[in-house]
Amino acid sequence: MTFTRWLKKIRHFLPLPWLLCDGATVARIKCEHLFSVVGTSYGVGDHQTIFNLHDFHGRFSLGVGKASPVGVLGENNTVELTTKHLPSHSHSADSLSTLVAGNHSHSYQDPGHDHGGRTGNGQFDAGGYKLGKDGNRNSYTEHSHTISRDTTHITIEPVKENEHQIEGQPTIAGSGKPFSVIPPYQTVIYIIYTD
């Protein structure tokens, strides 16, 4: 089967034996030769007495190839990109925060301690006795008192390993709106020779 672009004249009507490629139904007996060529490739009609013509509404012709044999209808003229169509990429993290604000605590050990020091020498003579009212006597001499010193011995335990959940989301981009893949075009009416 061959197609011919009929460009000899511009008219306001379609001369016979040409028909519009608009998907209309045609009697098989009326266009017997055309039906013998295209058959029901573009529509079976009523399966008995009629068949469908090509429908070029909103379509353009494409040369036959391995991926596009004769009679194949193309897909939609718009597409919607999904992640499988995109190259590998990354998004900025935007604003993130921990769910518990990173709260944690430290434990400590306090075994107890005391403070100490040493008193100075008292202002006494070299020695002597002191008599009490009851006649008893006490001896005295120069001396000092020593108080032991120590550190606190408090230790702070390190923080154990822990996890904090992060909430937030990467920067959002795009809206998923389908876009046209039709190249620049000029509309025409396709016709087919039926005899």
Structure report:
This is Phage tail collar domain-containing protein. Residues 102-127 are annotated as: Disordered. Residues 13-60 form the Phage tail collar domain. It holds the Pfam family Collar. The chain contains 1 helix and 14 strands. The protein has 195 residues and is mostly beta strands. It has a domain at 22-57. A hairpin with a 5-residue loop joins β8 and β9 (137-140).
- Main β-sheet: number of strands, strand sense, barrel status? 2 strands, antiparallel
Cα-atom Rg, whole angstroms?
52 Å
Question: Class by helix and strand content?
Answer: mainly beta
Number of helices: 1
- What do the pLDDT scores average to? 75
Percent helix range? under 10%
State the distance separating the first and last CA atoms. Answer: 13 Å
Number of strands: 14
Approximately what portion of the residues adopt beta-strand conformation?
15-25%
**Would you identify the regions where 5 or more consecutive residues have pLDDT less than 50?**
none
Q: Give the strand line-up of the largest sheet.
A: 1-14
Helices and strands, in N-to-C order? Answer: EEHEEEEEEEEEEEE
Which descriptor suits the 3D outline?
A: rod-shaped
Lay out the secondary structure.
Elements: E1 18-20, E2 25-27, H1 32-38, E3 50-52, E4 78-79, E5 96-98, E6 108-109, E7 117-118, E8 128-131, E9 137-140, E10 146-147, E11 155-156, E12 166-168, E13 179-180, E14 191-193
Antiparallel strand pairs: 1-14, 2-3, 4-13, 5-12, 6-11, 7-10, 8-9
List keywords for this structure.
Phage_tail_collar_dom; Phage tail collar domain-containing protein; about 200 residues; 1 helix; Phage_tail_collar_dom_sf; two-stranded antiparallel sheet; mainly beta
